Amino acid sequence: MTQLLFILVSFFASVIGCICGIGGGVIIKPVLDAFGLYSVSTISFMSGCIVLSMTAYSVLKAQLSHESVIEKGVSTYLGIGAALGGLAGKQLFDMVKAMFENANTVGAVQAAALFAVTLGTAVYTVNRSRIHTHSIKNPVGCVVIGLCLGLMSSFLGIGGGPINLVVLYFFFSMETKTAAQNSLYIILLSQIASLLFTIVRGKVPEFPVILFICMVCCGILGGMVGRKVNKKIDSQTVSKLFLGLLVVIMGICCYNFFRYR
Fold first, then answer.
1. DSSP line for the chain
2. What's this model's pTM, rounded to 2 decimal places?
3. pLDDT tens figures, 167-185
């Protein structure tokens, strides 16, 4: 029964992640943490792979269908920075994990940090129309911003999530649906680098293979459904869905913080 719930979470998180451009890891990671069946490292790894499968499908499908609005210049530099930041984030995760006698205590740190990030994202989203935005084009600036994105996302084990959207809104003045596609592209680049780094270092945690395969397949299926839904709704609806999701995530973070503490 629990494994079925894991599969359903992977599917619906990927659907919402594709629609909003948050990847789905920001939902999958805290929800699976809340079940407490696997270690924080295992859940982070599984979440990252599910996000990778969904973003790979979504980005490739948009390209092949000539529906892509990805700003390759800006987003590629952001993706490169996010990939480098992701590697640093993994090192930071290992360092924080080593600080505690109980390795899973790092889950409380992640939950608290994710709550703070999500709260900040919600506040920005509510006040977005009143905030002056920018249009950064400088490659170095893009890489540095991407580096910060990747560091936070990798440490939190969420792949990218809401942080990407706020950055794309504020620093690059992107419209909601355009930001969603570019966010998925950035997440894809950073997740590829993260997976390769994990494999090269021999840090792949133990995980249930059959369940893992089913969850990854659901990530792709969620991307398929999410793309279709995204075409049928407007940007305002996407923003409302995103804001509602942030509230749910904050609630889960609070639960996980007190469970791991």
1. -HHHHHHHHHHHHHHHHHHHTSTTHHHHHHHHHHH--S-HHHHHHHHHHHHHHHHHHHHHHHHHTT-----HHHHHHHHHHHHHHHHHHHHHHHHHHHTSSSGGGHHHHHHHHHHHHHHHHHHHHHTGGGS-------HHHHHHHHHHHHHHHHHHTSSSHHHHHHHHHHHH---HHHHHHHHHHHHHHHHHHHHHHHHHTT-PPP--HHHHHHHHHHHHHHHHHHHHHHHHS-HHHHHHHHHHHHHHHHHHHHHHHHHH-
2. 0.90
3. 999 999 999 999 999 999 9
